[in-house]
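Comment thread on ticket #2218

A.B. wrote:
> Attaching the input chain for the structure job we discussed in standup.
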Amino acid sequence: MDRKDFLKKGLLGTGMFVASASLGNTMKNEIDEIEPLEPIGYNHLPNTDSKIKDNSVLHKADSRGKADHGWLVSNHTFSFANYHNPERMHFGVLRVLNDDKVEAGRGFGTHPHDNMEIISIPLEGDLEHKDSMGNSAIIRSGDIQVMSAGTGIMHSEFNKNNDSLVKFLQIWVYPNKRNVTPRYDQITLDKTKSQNRFQQILSPNADDEGVWIHQDAWFHLGNFENNIETRYQIKKKGNGVYVFILKGSAEIEGQKLEERDGFGVWDISGLNIKSTSENTEILLMEVPMTM
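C.D. wrote:
> Ran it. Output below, let me know if you need it in another format.
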């Protein structure tokens, strides 16, 4: 396949397209890497490189794949682009969890996706978004952005600022409906609702709190003081939960977790969670383990 045909296919959800460009110059992109992945099947269980029990898997922060492009530093929990680990392809329908830092004035040039639910969670700085649906927006810490790529979209993402980093999580979830009409949404959270409890930020239902996607998935964020105990109840039988520690530390079902550790659990009805340091921030991603 030549480059032109490859760009037409655009990886469209099962791989990566990284284009580096300066602000205001999205038409002249330098392609840093194009590395497709084979389409991923919907296995019931994750592979076993970090399995610690019959129903859980641990991914320590320093075990993630790392890509350093100068303008972009990205840590990949699951296989992505040049980081290909057959033991870390996905957790149920959770396909991508990238922890990205983008240099001032740089970003991802215009690139395509299809048939993927794409969620961005800004952690620091200002991320500018433009897409082929006519949306132009800036998302910041406290915002949640979602795109249903559906039949196909083009979009770009840039660090809006010329003097500071932007940090954000890029998350991809396989949809339960293919070839839907593409859509975009973003909201600003009321952070008081996540103090010492979990705040719902995403669900399958447009009328629920947070954004929604085409999948039976629920995401929650919580910010906890030290030694706060809580329990998360599974929303749909058969779903698993992937926990990502943004800051601080916690003990979940007896497993000790530190900053940027990931912990996936399945075949459960709920999770017992205890923060073990001040200002512990936790992202819970409940997702189907099968399609």
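A.B. wrote:
> Thanks. Noting for the ticket: The chain has one domain: 3-288.
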